[in-house]
Design goal:
Helix content of chain B: over 70%
Structural class of chain B: mainly alpha
Largest sheet of chain A: none
Largest interface: A-B, 44 and 57 residues
Strand content of chain A: under 5%
Distance between the termini of chain A: 17 Å
Shape of chain B: globular
Shape of chain A: elongated
Strand content of chain B: under 5%
Helix content of chain A: over 70%
Number of helices of chain A: 10
Oligomer: heterodimer
Largest sheet of chain B: none
Number of helices of chain B: 15
Order of helices and strands of chain B: HHHHHHHHHHHHHHH
Chain lengths: 279, 340
């Protein structure tokens, strides 16, 4: 299945290399001391060279080392944000879909309200309220993301609740908890996983956007959005300063996107068949 | 009541509920601020009494529920409070900054829809050939590019290296000096056009191209993919085959029968894309020094100006909900198959 899709392989390749880089960053980067605060006035804003493949920044730090180290920050942000959003969303969406009635109505209207604020604007407002910083930015992004999962899970649960096998389980005297954990949860997991794997990329993108606006990671953290924001002051002559961190963001979003696409084809045979027929 | 009218009323009631919750969310948010807005309002060297006075002036000494009801009463009369950093009514600030954002997002949406549909049709007609592969590649990369990075790259390549388009501001300062634009709607493109101010129009147009193209880059990719899929689906329908077998020219079949039917569902993406563009505009405005809501917000954030931030959130969400309402009604109107 995977072998037939070169793009999925590319996605898996990109994501796994980013993960490996994130884990081993301190050991693989050529200038580990440049990851955070270090100043080398003698090699300030140097262009791309063999010693510094991505050039150096305004403090003389090696941008290659910093860009690679940034993987650590961004992957963590992406994973934690989506995990939190998915847990909250699954909980609320599940309750909403399973019990229905007034609980469903209340939860869904709150969800609607959250979804009716453009997500970046809401993230901005929450991050501004909590104050600049990476943890606050993560909280802000999670706040804007859970409603999507709540909606998704609710739709899934409502659909599965009516399936024959659930009715059969109920007829045989299965308890509520048994039905939820044994039947409904496992069967609604696939679309959540697909969405989550794609969303990690978009969460990284949003975190970088907040970093760019000064609301995310703070200096001297090697966060990509923050690096682009600082590098912008040295445009257009020092083009490498903004270009390479941006390329890292681009690569990670692309990687998770392809991975999500591939997983969808793999995990959801119904979509696959439909997609095939159409193509 | 006709079903369409019933649908509109129902959607409108929902809108009111949503605005109610949005305002509550933002109000709660603004009251968990760690910094002290009264201290900021009074200035860095204020004495204790001055801070107390500022607190009373901003109404921050009242109990929370009282602040909440006052906020609502004021909101309904169009009063969003005083901005801490500009020291002007927030409503007035928003009226000054909002048109620039509206102009930018509208032009970007126009690019999204027109170019997106065009690209989608082209790739559907050349399915699995070079143009289709190229547009697939573009769609894949388009959504993965950080919009602020893309803007910087556009400034670098198109603005600096080629020197074709201006890279910051809404209008050339010299043009503004010699051919000032009369503010009527606040949208420079329209204002300069209706007053017959051609130099200002050209300047405004050349300034908006780069930021608007940057802003539409990702949404355009999404629309083009959707349009391609819809077009292929429609081209597969019986009535198209009938039209073809009757010997109608293929150009007529594609543009008259297929395109019109394929375009209807695209309307629904426009609503969603609008929200994305509104958020993206905040980043694009920062990059291109565009004097809109985004810049106003970044300034407000630095000064912990919560009436201003609150105002921006309330305004953008109301606009977003309204646009989606219009889009949904339009869709229901255009597509007789939909059930309300």
């Amino acid at each position: 299945m995977i072998r037939h899709s070169p793009l999925t392989i590319l996605g898996i390749g990109v994501v796994s290399s980013l993960a490996i880089l994130a884990i081993f960053a301190p050991y693989v980067i050529p200038y580990p001391e440049d990851a955070y605060l270090s100043i080398h006035p003698e090699r300030k804003l140097m262009p791309v060279s063999f010693e510094h493949p991505f050039g150096t920044d305004d403090m003389g730090r090696d941008l290659f080392s910093r860009s690679i180290f940034g993987t650590r920050i961004s992957l963590q942000v992406g994973a934690i944000v989506i995990l939190v959003a998915a847990i909250v969303g699954v909980g609320l969406g599940g309750v909403s879909g399973y019990f229905g009635g007034i609980i469903d109505e209340a939860i869904m209207r709150i969800t609607d309200a959250f979804l009716s604020i453009p997500s970046l604007v809401l993230a901005l407002a929450v991050a501004a309220t909590l104050g600049p910083g990476l943890n606050n930015a993560m909280a802000a992004i999670a706040v804007t993301w859970w409603p999507w999962y709540a909606r998704l899970v609710r739709a899934q649960v409502i659909q599965i609740k009516q399936e024959l096998y659930v009715e059969a389980a109920r007829a045989m005297g299965g308890g509520k908890l048994y039905i939820i954990f044994k039947h409904i949860m496992p069967n609604s997991l696939a679309p959540i996983i697909v969405n989550a794997s794609m969303d990690v990329g978009y969460a990284i993108l949003t975190a970088a956007a907040l970093g760019f606006l000064g609301l995310g990671a703070q200096p001297p953290a090697p966060e990509w959005g923050l690096m682009i924001s600082t590098g912008r002051k040295y445009m257009p002559t020092r083009w490498w300063y903004t270009t390479f961190p941006g390329l890292m963001i681009f690569l990670s979003v692309l990687g998770f996107n392809l991975l999500g696409d591939g997983l969808r084809d793999l995990l959801d045979p119904r979509i696959r068949r439909k997609g095939r027929a159409k193509r | 009541m006709s079903p369409l009218l019933k649908y509109i009323v129902k959607r409108f009631l929902l809108l009111v509920l949503v605005v109610l919750i949005v305002v509550t969310i933002t109000f709660v948010l603004s009251h968990i601020i760690p910094g002290d807005p009264a201290r900021l309002y009074a200035g860095p060297h204020a004495r204790f009494e001055q801070i107390q006075k500022a607190r009373a002036e901003l109404g921050l000494d009242k109990p929370l529920w009282e602040q909440y009801t006052t906020y609502w009463i004021r909101l309904l009369s169009g009063d969003l409070g005083m901005s801490i950093h500009t020291r002007r009514p927030v409503t007035q600030d928003l009226m000054d900054y909002f048109p620039a954002t509206v102009e930018l997002t509208t032009v970007a949406m126009a690019f999204t829809v027109i170019l997106g549909i065009l690209l989608g049709v082209v790739s559907a007609l050349h399915k699995d050939r070079a143009p289709d592969h190229a547009s697939r590649l573009y769609a894949l990369t388009g959504v993965a590019m950080p919009v602020f990075w893309l803007g910087i790259l556009a400034q670098l390549f198109i603005g600096h290296s080629l020197g074709i388009l201006p890279i910051s501001g809404r209008v050339d300062t010299m043009v503004e000096l010699f051919y000032p634009t009369k503010r009527i709607t606040g949208l420079f493109l329209i204002d300069s056009l209706i007053t017959g101010n051609i130099p200002a129009f050209i300047s405004a147009l050349s300034h908006i191209l780069l930021p608007a193209l940057t802003l539409s880059f990702a949404t355009l990719a999404i629309v083009s993919r959707m349009m391609r899929a819809l077009m292929l689906e429609v081209l597969d329908q019986d009535y198209i085959r009938t039209a073809k077998s009757l010997g109608l020219p293929s150009r007529l079949v594609v543009y008259k029968y297929a395109l019109r039917n394929a375009m209807i569902p695209v309307i629904t993406v426009i609503g969603l894309s609008f929200g994305y563009s509104l958020g993206g505009a905040f980043l694009v405005e920062t990059v291109f020094d565009w004097p809109g809501l985004g810049r106003y917000t970044t300034d407000s954030i630095v000064t912990l100006d919560y009436p201003a931030i609150l105002g921006v959130v309330v305004l953008t969400s109301i606009v977003y909900v309204l646009v989606n309402l219009v889009v949904d009604i339009l869709y229901a109107y255009l597509n007789p198959k939909i059930r309300y």
